[in-house]
Amino acid sequence: MNARKPWLAVLLSVVSPGMGLLYTGHGPAAALFAVGPTATLTLLITTTVFIAPDLLVPALFLGMTGFGFAWVTQVVWSWARARTARQFSPAWYNRTWFMLFFGVVSYVATQVEAGAMRLFVVEPFIVPSEAMAPTLIPGDQFFVIKVGPAAKLHRGSVVVAQFERRPEKVIKRIIGLEGERVRVNQGIVELDGVPSPTTPCPDGTCVIERPAGTKGWPVQTDAQPPNQTWTVGHERSFLMGDNRGNSEDSRYLGDVHGDQVVGVATVIWFSWSRESGVRWSRFGQRVSP
């Protein structure tokens, strides 16, 4: 008959959720806290991506709050059970070897689940350069959706992609679609010979470009390279940065196949720079129209 040590129950709970409850003899609750919070968070995010992608940030905040509450609950519960377990008969699942096995399996399962989410459902990215200004600026952090209706590619979508001639992932906007002739005249796009209508931005630092069938987006058109015409290939897209004079995109690297697109950018969930600190006004701004 061995009493359980409260400090050890807390330590085990902190190291691996559920292990403290396993140590104090509550196997079912240990299993629930080991897999339940992560599975619930995964289900919540995946459901939101398919049904209401605009609510991804609130859903993530809600899910992480619930995850934190569950984590604190199992720590406190483990401590309370250890304090009251003055006489305790260890079962097979209280043995050291099984608790080590439990911790390893829980950790691996959590990492696999998180990795699958990033690989197939949604992934965070950080803006590294001015190439997408003013829509995205360095320090903006946003989510890229990879499945569901919100991941469907269309003109105007801001995407993360990989060019065949450039290994790193880049953030650009889809401008030209399969079979279209794209020309950039003084920074303004022409599609099949039709110039995109433009209006000045309210602050005068850019123009709103509105290709046919789109709501438009702000672009900076200064310091342009020589005009040229490109024809978009089969099942490919022509990508450009909104900062037309400071973007290495399809004008230099060629168009991209659909398989080279990682996903569609949705909403800014955090923004920070060393000079200005946290930029609260950018929180929640939509990226793709």
What does this molecule look like?
By secondary structure, the chain is α+β, with helices and mostly antiparallel strands. The protein is built from 6 helices and 15 strands. The chain folds into 2 domains: 6-120, no CATH class; 123-282, Umud Fragment, subunit A (Ribbon), CATH 2.10.109. The chain has helices spanning 6-15, 19-23, 27-51, 56-84, 96-120, 250-253, and strands spanning 122-126, 140-145, 158-161, 170-176, 181-185, 188-191, 194-195, 198-200, 207-209, 217-219, 229-231, 236-240, 256-257, 261-273, 277-278. The strands form 3 sheets. Strands 1, 2, 3, 4, 12, 13, 14 and 15 form an 8-stranded antiparallel β-sheet that branches. A 4-stranded antiparallel β-sheet has the order 7-6-5-11, with no helix packed on it. Helix 1 packs antiparallel against helix 4 and helix 3 packs parallel to helix 5 (96-120). The mean pLDDT is 91.
